[in-house]
């Protein structure tokens, strides 16, 4: 069967909800940003239903791509091969309120802001030996070999943004989620519960916040008091702390 990649173009999504109505196990509302859909379980439905959901979107925000049609650089992480278990610290970042920013700024100014955002964050990832696994349009999925380097990178990102905000008057609010976990590595991609937990941790973070699982942060890192949070899609709560980066 043809391998598919499904994604939501967040800037086109207007929250019509057609995709969720047609395939509720494959799509759901994006937590933390009102009026956007998210891909949550593309393997739970048939190829035909995914394509039907994409056709039903009034703005074409649901994108279904055949892997065979993707360019080589887009195939990163989709290749099959031997699976191995690894221990990584996963980071997810996301610009908060991106839809409102696009509307307020216009496409040209938004594109310029995104280019600056992407360059700035990638500079910090590279300085801390982070590996970019994928870009989500207005955020990143990054892997680090240790919690310490991931936390240092997250702090570096928030400080760079705060410094730019102080000097130039504006920088987007970015939320960051961190989680150290074992995962299955296939090619350049990572799969498993830990990856999903890291993504959901980022979902519940506020703008300008670094939110991490308690097990990711050592005792010498200043944090808030732990709080128990139910992550979407999980049956048990997880203990989270906010890293103090200021």
Explain what this protein looks like in three dimensions.
This protein folds into two domains: 4-75, Alpha-Beta Plaits (2-Layer Sandwich); 83-242, Alpha-Beta Plaits. Helix 4 (107-127) packs across helix 5 (147-168). It contains six helices and twelve strands. The model is unreliable at 68-79 (pLDDT under 50). The N and C termini lie far apart (50 Å). It is globular and about 50 Å long. A hairpin with a 7-residue loop joins strand 2 and strand 3 (37-39). The longest helix is centred in the middle third of the chain and has 22 residues, at 147-168. It has helices at residues 18-22, 47-56, 98-105, 107-127, 147-168, 193-204, and strands spanning 4-8, 27-29, 37-39, 62-66, 83-95, 131-135, 140-144, 174-186, 189-191, 210-213, 227-229, 238-242. By secondary structure, it is of the alpha+beta class. The chain is 32% helix and 27% strand. Strands 5, 6, 7, 8, 9, 10, 11 and 12 form an eight-stranded mixed sheet that branches. Strands 1-4 form a two-stranded antiparallel ribbon.
């Amino acid at each position: 069967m043809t391998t598919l990649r499904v994604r939501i173009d967040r800037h086109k999504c207007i929250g019509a909800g057609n995709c969720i109505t047609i395939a509720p196990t494959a799509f759901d509302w994006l937590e933390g940003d009102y009026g956007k859909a998210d891909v949550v379980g593309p393997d739970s439905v048939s190829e035909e239903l995914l394509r039907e959901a994409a056709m039903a979107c009034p703005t074409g925000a649901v994108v279904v791509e055949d892997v065979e049609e993707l360019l080589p650089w887009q195939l990163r992480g989709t290749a099959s091969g031997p699976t191995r278990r690894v221990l990584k610290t996963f980071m997810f970042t996301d610009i908060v309120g991106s839809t409102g920013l696009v509307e307020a700024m216009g496409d040209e100014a938004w594109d310029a802001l995104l280019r600056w955002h992407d360059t700035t964050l990638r500079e910090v990832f590279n300085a801390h030996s982070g590996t970019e696994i994928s870009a989500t349009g207005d955020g990143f999925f990054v892997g680090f070999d240790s919690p310490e380097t991931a936390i240092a990178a997250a702090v570096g990102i928030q400080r760079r943004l705060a410094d730019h905000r102080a000097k130039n008057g504006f920088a987007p609010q970015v939320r960051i989620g961190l989680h150290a976990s074992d995962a299955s590595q296939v090619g350049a991609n990572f799969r498993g519960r830990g990856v999903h937990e890291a993504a959901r941790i980022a979902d519940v973070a506020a703008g300008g916040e670094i939110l991490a699982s308690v097990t990711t942060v050592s005792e010498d890192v200043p944090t808030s008091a732990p709080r128990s949070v139910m992550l979407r899609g999980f049956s048990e709560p997880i203990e989270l702390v906010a890293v103090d980066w200021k």
